[in-house]
Amino acid sequence: MNSKEEHTKLIKAAAKRLGFLSCGISKAEFLEDEAPRLETWLNKNMNGEMGYMENYFDKRLDPTKLVPGSKSVISLLLNYYPSEKQKSDTYKISKYAYGRDYHFVIKDKLKQLMHVIQEEIGEVNGRAFVDSAPVLDKAWAAKSGLGWIGKHSNLLTKQTGSFYFIAELIIDLDLEYDTPVTDHCGSCTACIDACPTQAIVDPYVVDGSKCISYLTIELKNEIPNEFSGKMEDWMFGCDICQDVCPWNRFSKPHNEPLFNPHPALLENSKQDWEEITKEVFNEIFRKSAVKRTKYEGLKRNIQFLKN
C-alpha cells in the first residue's frame, strides 16, 4: 500500500470513529462546472438579501485560493435526523435546529480529526469549514462521491437521504480521490410539486429569496405579503422538500446526544409559542442555531403565520 492510500484509509477510519456518516475526498482545484451556475444564480438575484454570497467569488470556486497550498478537500457528512419530532399541529422548526448548534458540534469533531491526521501522518496544514466560509459544501460532497445534488438542490444519498450536515477539511496533503456518483432523481418531481412558495424554479435551481428557510432566518426585513398563507406553519427553516423526498424513507435517527432537543421544543403548542417570553426563548434555545433569528425574529415569524 502506498502512502497516499495509507493516509486516505487512516483519515476515513478516523472520521468513522468520530461519528461521521461518511467521508469522501477530492482534489483541491477550481470548480469549473459550478462557476457559470453560481454566476447566473447571483445575476438573477436568487440570493435575496444574502449579500455575502457575492463576496469572495474566486475563493468560493477555488480552494487553493482560500487555503494556500491545499491539495485535498475532505468532505464529511454528519446525520441529524431526530428520533422524535414536534407534534403535528404546532409552529415548526427545521429538524437540523432541534439540538445544539451544529457549528460547535462539528467544529469540535473536525479539530479532533485534524489532530489525528497530524499525530499519525506528521506536519499537515489546513483549515476546517462548517458552513461559515465561502466553500460550496454540496458541490464538494458530490464531487467526492458522497451523493448527488437533487432537484431541491440538497445533497442526496441512496442509503440515508438528505438529513445530514456537510463539513470540510481542506489540507495540503495529496490523497486518493473519490469519484462522483450518478443522479437518482429520475423523473420524480415530489420536491418541486410540494414547495408552497414555488422556490424550486427549475429542477436543481432554488430561488433563495422565495425559500421559507430564507424568509424565516436570513431575511431581516418584514416577510413580504405575497407569502401570506403559504408558509405552512414553519417558524424557523423548512423541511418540506426533504420530507417529501422518497430517498428520505431511508433516514435513520442520529446517535449524537448533543442534537437531542429541549423537551419543550417537542411539546409546545401553537399557543405556547405565541406566548413565548424572552427568558423561555433563551432557555429552550440556549446553544441552538435558532439563536440566529433572535427572539424578535422568531416572534416576527409567528406573528406572520398567525395573520
From TrEMBL:
Residues 173-204 form the 4Fe-4S ferredoxin-type domain. Pathway: tRNA modification; tRNA-queuosine biosynthesis. It is found in: Cytoplasm. One of its GO terms (cellular component) is cytoplasm. Its EC number is 1.17.99.6. Belongs to the QueG family. This is Epoxyqueuosine reductase. The gene is queG.
